[in-house]
C-alpha cells in the first residue's frame, strides 16, 4: 500500500467483500447489498462499479485465473528440463492454492453461476493453464524422463490435486503452504513416472 | 424399484430434489419451498419430514459419508496385500465420485452450512474414511512395499484426488467412470512409491 493511497480503493474493497461473502454463503446466497455493506459502502454501491453481481464474480474469476496462468508460465519459463519444470510448476501452483485458498474456492466452485459467454472465457484461460502443464508432461514423455499411459488425464489429475488444496487447506492446520507444496512436488513427479 | 412401490416415497423425492437444488444454487441459495415444489409437493412439505433445510443437508451428508465409509471398508476387507488394497480402494472411491458426482459435490462443498454439532459428526465419519486409507498406506510402508516421507499427507492427497473428480467429472466428457478409476489406481500406487 503506497503512502499516497492508504485505503484500498472501492473496487478492491468490493472484490474482497465479494470473495468473503461468496466463500461463506455461495454466489446465490449472497446479495449485492451484503457485498456493498461489508465493503463499508451504501447498499447499492456495487452498481457504481459493476453491472451486476455476476459481472463481479466474472471479474474475480477472470483476474484470478489470469494470475494463475501467469504464475505457471513463470514457473516453467526459466527452466528447460521437464522434471525441473513440473516440480516448480506444482510447487508454485500448490503453494498458491494453499495461501489463497478462499479466493481459489470461489473461482473454482462458483463457476456454474456465470453466464455462458463468461464461463466460456474462463474455460479458455483454464485450458491455457492446462496446456502449460500438458506440454511439460508430453515433452517429458517424448524425451523418456516421464512414463504415463495417459498424459492428458495425468495432467488433469495433477491440477486437480492442487485445486483440491483450496478446499481443505486452513492456516490453523498441520502444515505450512511450503510443506504442502514440497510434498506435492514429489507426488506429481511420481504420478508422471519420473525416473 | 419394487412392484409394490412404483413411486419413490416422499423423503426420497425430497432428498433427490435437495441434491439437485443445492448443486445448482448452493445451500444458501436454495429455499425449502424450492425443494418441496421440485419434489412435486406443497411448499411447506419439507417440514413434514425434516425440521429444517439444514437437517435435510445433514441427513444427505451423513448417509452419503456412511455409504462411502462402507464402500472403502468393503474395498479392503477381502484383501490383505497393501498394494491390492490401495488399488481397489482408489478404484472404488474414484468410480463412485465420478458416477455420483452431483451428490458428492453437495456433501463435500456445502459442509460449511452445517451446524457445528452436525459438522463434527460428519468430520468423525470423514476421519474414519481417512483412517481406512491411512492404515493401508502405513502398513505398506511398514512392510516395505510403499515408500513415502509423509504417509498422512499422502493419504490426504489420494482422497483429495478422488474428491476433486466430483468437481470436474461430467457424463458427456472424454472418459467413463471406469477409465478414470483405472488410471487413478495407477496414479495412487505411484504416489505411495509402490515397488
Describe the overall structure.
Two copies of one chain form a homodimer. Chain A is mainly alpha-helical and 195 residues long. Chain A has two domains: 1-50, Homeodomain-like (Arc Repressor Mutant, subunit A); 52-191, Tetracycline Repressor, domain 2 (Orthogonal Bundle). In chain A, 71% of the residues lie in helices and 0% in strands. Chain A has helices at 10-25, 32-38, 46-49, 53-76, 82-99, 101-109, 116-142, 151-168, 177-191. In chain A, helix 1 packs across helix 6 (101-109) and helix 4 (53-76) packs across helix 6. Chain A is elongated, with a radius of gyration of 19 Å. The N and C termini of chain A lie far apart (46 Å). The mean pLDDT of chain A is 95. The A-B interface holds A 24-30, 108-109, 112, 149-150, 152-154, 156-157, 160-161, 163-165, 167-168, 174-175, 180, 183-184, 186-187, 190-191, 193 and B 24-30, 108-109, 112, 149-150, 152-154, 156-157, 160-161, 163-165, 167-168, 174-175, 179-180, 183-184, 186-187, 190-191, 193.
Category by helix and strand content of chain A: mainly alpha
Kindly provide the radius of gyration of chain A, computed on alpha-carbon positions and rounded to a whole number of angstroms: 19 Å
Number of strands of chain A: 0
The CATH topology of the largest domain in chain A corresponds to Tetracycline Repressor, domain 2
Amino acid at each position: 500500500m503506497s503512502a499516497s493511497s492508504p485505503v484500498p480503493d472501492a473496487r478492491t474493497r468490493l472484490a474482497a467483500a465479494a470473495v468473503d461473502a461468496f466463500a461463506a454463503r455461495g454466489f446465490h446466497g449472497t446479495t449485492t447489498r451484503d457485498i456493498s455493506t461489508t465493503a463499508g459502502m451504501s447498499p447499492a454501491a456495487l452498481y457504481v462499479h459493476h453491472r451486476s453481481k455476476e459481472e463481479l464474480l466474472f471479474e474475480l474469476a477472470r483476474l484470478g485465473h489470469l494470475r494463475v496462468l501467469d504464475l505457471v508460465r513463470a514457473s516453467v519459463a526459466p527452466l528447460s528440463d521437464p522434471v525441473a519444470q513440473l516440480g516448480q510448476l506444482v510447487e508454485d501452483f500448490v503453494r498458491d492454492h494453499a495461501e489463497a485458498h478462499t479466493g481459489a474456492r470461489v473461482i473454482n466452485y462458483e463457476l456454474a453461476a456465470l453466464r455462458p459467454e463468461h464461463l466460456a472465457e474462463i474455460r479458455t484461460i483454464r485450458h491455457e493453464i492446462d496446456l502449460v502443464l500438458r506440454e511439460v508432461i508430453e515433452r517429458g514423455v517424448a524425451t523418456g524422463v516421464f512414463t504415463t499411459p495417459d498424459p492428458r488425464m495425468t495432467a488433469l489429475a495433477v491440477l486437480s490435486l492442487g485445486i483440491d488444496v483450496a478446499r481443505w487447506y486452513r492456516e490453523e492446520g498441520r502444515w505450512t503452504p511450503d510443506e504442502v507444496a514440497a510434498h506435492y512436488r514429489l507426488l506429481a513427479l511420481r504420478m508422471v513416472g519420473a525416473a
